[in-house]
Design a protein that fits this description.
Elements: E1 13-15, E2 18-21, H1 23-35, H2 38-45, H3 49-62, E3 68-71, E4 79-82, H4 84-114
Helix pairs in contact: 1-2, 1-4, 2-3
């Protein structure tokens, strides 16, 4: 019997036309929390600073309070950090991810048993 294909669950929460938070934005928030920098978090993700900044602006616009605050500056100055709201949203999203993965696991296994083997990536 062939090995079941691995499946991954992606959750995103939409607020009107915008994605308020999803896996990429959560990873960006975590990177900002760890590095203290939008640019450094973007580099770790292989993302441009402009794209990261647009994602931060979208997230900040989706919530009552901003999730990230930043200070302008050059090398050795400036930086960014999560607000209390940002930390709360990230923690709640990570908790949602864990709970959803646990709830989805038996269903994902049933679907994976019916799936083809994934094609190797070029």
């Amino acid at each position: 019997m062939p090995r079941a294909a691995p499946l991954r669950l992606f959750l995103r929460l939409e607020l009107g036309p915008d994605i308020a938070i999803g896996p990429g934005k959560a990873d960006l928030l975590a990177g900002i929390a760890e590095t203290g920098s939008i640019a450094a978090a973007a580099r770790r993700m292989g993302m441009s600073y402009k794209r990261a900044w647009l994602l931060v602006e979208t997230m900040n616009g989706c919530f009552r309070e901003p999730l990230v605050i930043s200070a302008r500056g050059g090398k050795g100055a400036g930086g960014a950090r999560l607000t209390a709201e940002g930390e709360a949203v990230l923690a709640a999203y990570r908790s949602l991810q864990r709970d959803a993965e646990l709830a989805a696991a038996p269903h994902a296994r049933a679907i994976a048993r019916l799936a083809r083997e994934p094609k190797p990536r070029p």
